[in-house]
């Protein structure tokens, strides 16, 4: 069983769904994430958003031990093990981003970013105004909580099912 997550804001190009699914279906990875910053990308984000994505990309890269270029991508393919894991764990419902990458890494899932095309969505951004400050605060706090929960996460995933 596989699943695809695609945001409903029109940013993601659905023609890349098969490429993401193939990576997961082949068993190479547990989660394939579409990155707007790999390959030939014409995506342009506003400066503050780009800075935030860069900062959280560095934090996620350091914590999971692999390069993360697009920690806010909501374009993902997941296998059934990841879906079961999310059904057991508390999955953030508002802004699941870099914190989820850290959570998946601690749970020993294999993650890979793949180049995709994304379109700019300046009209409907959920990170405008005061929401952008809430997002940064929430994400930093969520990453810290995830780091503090590492032992609990490891116990849960190493326990026989």
TrEMBL record:
Q: What is this protein called?
A: Glycosyltransferase
Extract the CDD domains matched here. Answer: DPM_DPG-synthase_like
Q: Which domain of life is it from?
A: Bacteria
The taxonomy runs: Bacteria, Bacillati, Actinomycetota, Actinomycetota incertae sedis, Candidatus Hakubellales
| Keywords on record | Membrane, Transferase, Transmembrane, Transmembrane helix
UniProt GO BP: protein N-linked glycosylation
Species this protein is from: Candidatus Hakubella thermalkaliphila
GO molecular-function terms, A-Z: transferase activity
On whether Transmembrane is a keyword of this UniProt record, the answer is: yes
Q: Where are the transmembrane segments?
A: 47-65, 132-149
